Amino acid sequence: MSQNEGPDQVPVGPPMGAATAEDDSAVTAAHDRRDHGFFGQPFDLVHIFFVEMWERFSFYGMQGILLLYMFHSLEKGGLGMPEATATGIVGAYGGAVYLSTILGAWVADRLLGSERVLFFSAIVIMCGHIGLAVLPGFWGLGVGLILVAVGSGGLKANATSVVGTLYAPADTRRDAGFSLFYLGINLGALLGPILTGWAMVTWGFHAGFALAAIGMAAGLIQYSIGRKNLPDDARVIPNPLPAGRRIIMIGIAVAAIVLIIVLVLAGVIKAKNLADVVILVTLAAAIAYFAVILTSKRIDGDERSRVFGFIPLFIVSVGFWSLYQQQFTVLTLYSDSQLNRDIFGWIMPVPFVQSINPIFIIILSGVFAALWTKLGSRQPSTPVKFGLGSIVMGIAFLLFLPFANGADNSTPLLAIVGILLVFTIAELLISPVGLSVTTKLAPKAFHTQMVALFFLSVALGTAIAGWLAQFYNAKDQVPYFSVLGIIAIVLGSALLLSIKPVLKLMRGVR
Q1: Which of 133, 248, 267, 352 could form a disulfide with 209 if both were Cys (CB 3.0 to 4.6 A apart)?
Q2: Is the pTM of this model over 0.90?
Q3: Residue 491 CB neighbours (<10 A)
Q4: Cβ distance 115 to 227 under 8 Å?
């Protein structure tokens, strides 16, 4: 239904970047009025900065102890799962988080708008962490992970979309703003594993999960106070669902839930193949999403070309996250056995390793933001950044080779710190840049859903990371790190060799 089909139509306006020519000056002026209130960025960025910071605190705090909780023995307070099953579940769960961005984006674009979905998603996340904290055994694990996955998916795509509404269409500081937003993400990612890891060592796994719930509650309270100041664009419903179709969509949702339950009870979906299922579902969803957007009559020729230009970036992003997200699978196993965590007689808890990368992000995100701002229109194009990011990520995996096949506690902590520094450089070349370019390439009618497509690349890569972990052999690590590192380097090099045709498809977006 179009915007003018009925008197009860939800009022909508153009999404970010979709203002008409006659409105451009008004939009720019509105953005200029709040342009420098938060470290040179729009002051409204502070509200999304902090809710995302607390969400990441809870998310990474929980994820920092999740794998340990699943494969540690019952005597140690864990669930006693086999390592291969546990890593597969972690990968599948991580993939499901990003896969859920589809649901969050669809609800935002068709029913509620990005800002409202962000708010309700934060509530669901908090409930998920409470479930992990208070419900025992596998039931607590299942209920908690499902709620956190669905809520995080809704928050992720929509937080990014709301940030995009803060900037005028031609604002060259957009990448710098997203890098600052990324700093908030990593402040939470830094503190989460440290504090939940400390709680785990001191009081047990469920205390760590409870601390994650408290962190999300803090973010929810803060956002509730500041959300009313966000721009009206953040509440836009770009493509409202007609009232007559809502019953149909509810029926489809119920049928999907019933189908999943039946497949689980029938043994088709089980813990051992969960990563495989998420990979297949995510791949099918990505293909379907691209098909829907590219064949839509609501996008013009330039928009369609830009979506085609996004496909190579999507593929490289999948490859990057397949390696990067192994911080939560292979690197956790590696740290639990092969890493020397003795610091002057104090044994550093394994979850603390997850805070090394955020430290570098906090240090370097400002450097990268300042670099992109200083270079302005002379900065490398997005395809160049993506290609270099994939190559650097491949090099990071090759850096494990000097320590491969080592004895227990044989890898120096400084070695992992150095490797994670390389991880960070690769991440800053792809992740915040990917968030930014997605908002620039997004067709007007698929504003938030295009952001969900970027997160689908993360979902696919994360699920693949969990699936790949089954091939990790602690006694023969050379093939694993070598093959994956070389694949990432080849993938990045292929994109660098394709810069001109990709930029041509992107139609002026760099």
Answers
A1: 133
A2: no
A3: 22
A4: yes
The DSSP result for 378-406, as a single string, is GSPPHHHHHHHHHHHHHHHHHTTGGGTT-
Q: What is the pLDDT of residues 410-462, one digit of tens each?
A: 899 999 999 999 999 999 999 888 877 887 887 877 776 677 788 789 889 99
CB-CB neighbours of 248 under 10 Å: 11
Candidates 188, 190, 192; CA nearest to 156 is 188
Whether residue 154 has pLDDT greater than 80: yes
**Cβ-contact 364, 424 below 8 angstroms:** yes
Domains and CATH numbers, the chain: 39-505 (1.20.1250.20)
| Confidence check: pLDDT of 251 > 60 | yes
Q: What is the pLDDT of residues 177-196, one digit of tens each?
A: 777 787 788 788 889 999 99
Which tokens belong to 253? 């949702």
376: its two tokens: 């302005």
d(CA 81, CA 274): 14
Q: Which tokens is 99 given?
A: 């896969």
- Residue ranges of alpha helices (H) inside 356-381 are 356-375
Percent of the chain with pLDDT over 90: 23
Q: What is the pLDDT of residue 35?
A: 55
**Angle made by CA atoms 300, 457, 326, in degrees to the nearest 5:** 165
- Quick check: 417 and 356 in contact, CB under 8 A? yes
For residue 343, list its beta bridge partners. Answer: 346
Q: What phi, psi does 497 have (nearest 5°)? A: -75, -10
Strand, coil or helix: what is 477?
coil
Q: Please, what is the Cα angle at 364 between 359 and 369, to 5 degrees?
A: 135
Contacts of 30 (CB under 8 A, 6+ apart): 231
